[in-house]
Amino acid sequence: MSENAMAMAPDVKEAFNDLKFSNAPGAALILKVDTDQETIMIDTYEKETTPEELAEEMSDTTPRYIIYSYKLVRDDGRQQYTLNMIYFCPETCNDRLRMNYSRLTPFVSQQLGLTKIIELKDMELFTESWLKSVVA
Predict the structure, then answer these.
(1) 51 and 68 in contact (C-beta within 8 Å)?
(2) pLDDT digits (tens, 9 = 90+) for 24-82
């Protein structure tokens, strides 16, 4: 399976655009790699969630790409809605999955037009305060 042979399922870009233009204060599009079909697919689309709730739902053995819409409130009161690509790859996942997801991370980023990739290895760290510290 080469990066060039990988495709993005059509509903991924549709859901991504929905998320992008929603200005949701906390929403997540979770993507997975289907190696049999050589496709990046939607695993889950949560239209309203917090980092803590999402951390509870995520597997600690399977990598995922998380596109998270976050409402950042600056110290001066200004509000900014950010789209963040989080590459979640737990330490406990097998090497083959780790290599596949690592190799495809730039492809997913490029297809969605997201330039900053945040790596996360432990979902217990995925809290609002952590997210604010890496986004701000």
Answers:
(1) yes
(2) 889 999 999 998 888 999 999 999 999 999 999 998 899 999 999 999 888 899 998 89
As given in the structure block, the two tokens for residue 56 are 């509870």
d(CA 5, CA 18): 26
Q: Residue 98 has what pLDDT? A: 92
For residue 86 the two structure tokens come to: 């989080």
Q: Are 7 and 41 in contact (CB under 8 A)?
A: no
- For residue 99, is pLDDT > 70? yes
Q: Which of 87, 115, 116 is nearest to 103 (CA)?
A: 87
Q: What is the 3-state secondary structure (H, E, C) of 52-82?
A: HHHHHHCCCCCCEEEEEEEEEECCCCCEEEE
Q: Which of 123, 8, 118, 26 is nearest to 71 (CA)?
A: 26
pTM: 0.91
Cα–Cα dist 130/97, whole Å = 25
3-state secondary structure of 34: strand
